[in-house]
């Protein structure tokens, strides 16, 4: 689009209008570019499992009835890739909504209990040592417990994926807000990547993350949910030392 250039002699009013117009067009263009990038990244991400499914289906067509070992391998691969595609599309649907459109089912929930449950489940599933510490026995917060649980799982899941030692979870209530932080002692994130990890589909290491199964959407979803609760999500990290991700939400929604 063409920006409006302002003639110095124009009136203040006209100058103001032109600036507003240019600003609006910049915002629109920016939004459009973001959408375009999202669609292109999403298609790229969905193509990988689809290609695997397609090639196994081809194998099944040719040899499925005569070679049982191929049948088993193909069905297994098609099944797991379909699950991956389903998860991906679910994540994309969440992100297709603006944070202001996130529908929150608010209820009083005890964050300490939620954190302990999430840690227990993850400990069991991944055989890892996740410790939960809190300065209070209970911390009640008005929140959408399912969505906050999803955030806790995203943060714990990342700590598990990118570290191998114990993981510490700390909960503190200070004034009108509650802080929940997950600390791992793993690979960490460089300074230059620290701001990018919230970007949709961003992965520090494309190849490695593909093995661990992440599409780079976890932290974008976490940030969206936390913002919908009028909270904040921030990361501190040192390469080779580890990472602390903290979520802070107000005790009462306004
Ligand atoms: P993914 O599903 O790939 O983990 P996320 O949005 O949750 O997607 O994270 C984006 C990227 O940020 C990851 O691919 C990883 O490179 C980096 N990252 C996130 N959490 C951590 C962590 N605790 N330690 C090191 N790197 C991390």
Automatic annotation (TrEMBL):
The keyword Kinase is annotated on this UniProt entry: yes
Subcellular location: Cell membrane
Gene Ontology terms: cellular component: plasma membrane
Domain Histidine kinase: start-end pairs: 41-253
Record GO terms (molecular function): ATP binding; phosphorelay sensor kinase activity
Main localization of the protein described in the UniProt heading: membrane
Membrane topology summary: Multi-pass membrane protein
Domain HAMP: 1-33
EC number: 2.7.13.3
This protein's record includes keyword Phosphoprotein: yes
Reactions that this protein is recorded to catalyse: ATP + protein L-histidine = ADP + protein N-phospho-L-histidine
Keywords: ATP-binding, Cell membrane, Kinase, Membrane, Nucleotide-binding, Phosphoprotein, Transferase, Transmembrane, Transmembrane helix, Two-component regulatory system
Name this polypeptide is given: histidine kinase
The organism's taxonomic lineage, starting at the top: Bacteria, Bacillati, Bacillota, Bacilli, Bacillales
Residues shown, of full length: 201 to 454 of 454
């Amino acid at each position: 689009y063409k920006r409006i250039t302002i003639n110095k002699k124009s009136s203040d009013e006209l100058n103001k209008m032109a600036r507003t117009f240019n600003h609006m067009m910049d915002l629109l263009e920016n939004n459009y570019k973001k959408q375009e990038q999202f669609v292109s990244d999403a298609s790229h991400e969905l193509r990988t499992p689809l290609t695997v499914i397609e090639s196994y289906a081809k194998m099944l067509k040719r040899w499925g009835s005569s070679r049982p070992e191929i049948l088993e391998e193909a069905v297994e691969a098609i099944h797991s890739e379909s699950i991956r595609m389903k998860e991906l599309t679910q994540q994309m649907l969440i992100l297709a909504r603006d944070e202001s459109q996130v529908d929150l089912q608010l209820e009083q929930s005890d964050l300490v209990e939620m954190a302990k449950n999430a840690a227990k489940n993850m400990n069991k599933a991944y055989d890892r040592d996740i410790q939960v510490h809190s300065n209070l026995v209970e911390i009640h917060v008005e929140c959408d417990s399912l969505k906050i649980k999803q955030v806790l799982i995203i943060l714990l899941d990342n700590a598990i994926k990118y570290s191998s030692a114990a993981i510490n979870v700390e909960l503190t209530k200070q004034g009108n807000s509650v802080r929940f932080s997950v600390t791992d002692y793993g690979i960490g994130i460089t300074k230059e990547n620290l701001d990018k990890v919230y970007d949709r589909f961003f992965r520090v290491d494309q190849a490695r993350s593909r093995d661990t199964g992440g599409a780079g959407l976890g932290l974008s979803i976490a940030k969206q949910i936390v913002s919908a609760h009028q909270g904040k999500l921030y990361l501190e990290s040192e390469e080779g030392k580890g990472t602390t991700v903290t979520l802070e939400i107000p005790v009462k929604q306004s």
